[in-house]
Design goal:
Layout: H1 2-15, H2 40-48, H3 53-65, H4 69-73, E1 80-81, E2 86-87, E3 90-95, E4 98-103, H5 116-129, H6 144-150, H7 154-174, E5 190-192, E6 198-201
Antiparallel strand pairs: 1-2, 3-4, 5-6
Length: 202
């Protein structure tokens, strides 16, 4: 590409004696290739092709954790969380005589190290948007007997949950024994709890 641009520049400036700007030169569109994704059968064949259990373990760990090769070579037993069945990877930085390990984020919003700070900042930003008026937090939880039904009928079950909770709020608020007024509210659908277990609620 550089040779072609130099040839064009020479043609316009030296031969044709005309002004030439590289900014006006059209570039060919860059072709983006989709990465090759192996099927489960191809991954199994690749792992089975390992000559020893040592290399088989390396391939299985690479595939199961998504770690880079350099991260895997530094992996130790203490980096494996047997309770969560997850691995921690990170980088080591040195300041003077002290070495500090900074673990990469697991990107779980419930993780106290990775996402708690981001969640607190998000909550603080939403608090600044609130009007100076009392708010009430009400939770409507789908019964456990119906929770598993939602996995195969998400659109129907979740729509029923949101509609039923909205109608309940409006009906209770209009009752003079409670508030006797029309209210405004936001409904947010959550499908799991803080332990990442199925728990549809709004």
């Amino acid at each position: 590409m550089t040779n072609h641009l130099c040839a064009l520049r020479f043609l316009y400036i030296q031969t044709l004696k005309r002004p030439w700007s590289i900014a006006d030169t059209p570039y060919p569109k860059k072709r983006y290739r989709l990465p090759t994704v192996l099927s489960q059968e191809e991954v199994a064949q690749l792992i089975d092709a390992a000559p020893t259990p040592f290399y088989r373990t390396i391939l299985m760990t690479l595939y199961g954790t998504g770690a880079r090769r350099t991260e895997l070579t530094r992996l130790k037993v203490s980096d494996i969380d047997s309770r969560r069945m997850a691995t921690y990877s990170g980088r080591q930085t040195r300041c003077g005589h002290r070495a500090t390990i900074s673990y990469n984020s697991c990107r779980n919003r419930h993780c106290p190290k990775c996402q708690t700070g981001a969640r607190e900042r998000w909550i603080a930003a939403r608090h600044r948007e609130l009007l100076p008026t009392p708010y009430v937090h009400v939770v409507f939880t789908l019964p456990p007997q119906l929770a598993w039904l939602a996995l195969r009928n998400k659109k129907v079950i979740y729509a029923l949950l949101l509609r039923a909770s909205a109608e309940t709020l409006l009906e209770v608020a209009r009752n003079r024994a409670h508030l006797g007024a029309d209210i405004g509210f936001f409904s947010v659908l959550h499908t799991w709890n803080q332990k990442l277990q199925l728990n549809p609620h709004s």
